């Protein structure tokens, strides 16, 4: 399987995720506090580079990868760049392949850091992957919420969204 396909598969794993490293959580947008300011962005995420050693048929603990993706809006305009890393951390007795993701998302109006754990099988199945996102600069600074993505077609750009509130 191509490196791009494996990255797409790993990226898709992040839909039904583990919040932090503690346990699985269904993909959902954050519920903002009354009067909170929220920013939501939806993108297509074409992959520029993926380097990894993950065996897609049988991922092993310790296998990892790095990726460099772009974010474009529905008109095809550039909106940002993602630098990310993923690592297979554990396999459960029920077969879950827990993979840790960490991403720095450089948007045209600020920076968001996203991190969490997802079951690699969910990526392969095209389910939404979701984990915590924290705004660290620009209009996102001090806001928190979710980074979500899913693979629609292997080897094609993924659907992506970020929602942060504060």
UniProtKB/TrEMBL annotation:
GO terms for biological process: antibiotic biosynthetic process. Coiled coil: none annotated. InterPro entries: AOC-like. One of its GO terms (molecular function) is isomerase activity. Residues 53-163 form the Allene oxide cyclase barrel-like domain. Keywords: Signal. Residues 1-27 form the signal peptide. This is Allene oxide cyclase barrel-like domain-containing protein.
């Amino acid at each position: 399987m191509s490196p791009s396909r494996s990255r797409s598969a790993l990226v898709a794993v992040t839909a039904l995720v583990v919040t932090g490293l503690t346990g699985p959580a269904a993909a959902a947008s954050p519920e903002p506090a009354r009067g909170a300011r929220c920013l939501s962005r939806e993108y297509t995420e074409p992959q520029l580079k993926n380097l990894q050693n993950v065996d897609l048929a049988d991922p092993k603990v310790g296998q990892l990868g790095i990726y460099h993706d772009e974010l474009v809006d529905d008109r095809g305009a550039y909106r940002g760049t993602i630098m990310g890393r993923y690592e297979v951390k554990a396999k459960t007795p029920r077969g879950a392949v827990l993979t840790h993701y960490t991403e720095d998302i450089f948007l045209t109006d600020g920076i968001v850091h996203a991190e969490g754990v997802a079951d690699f099988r969910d990526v392969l199945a095209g389910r939404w992957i979701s984990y915590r996102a924290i705004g660290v600069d620009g209009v996102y600074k001090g806001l928190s919420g979710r980074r979500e993505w899913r693979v629609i077609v292997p080897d094609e750009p993924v659907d992506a969204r970020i929602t942060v509130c504060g």
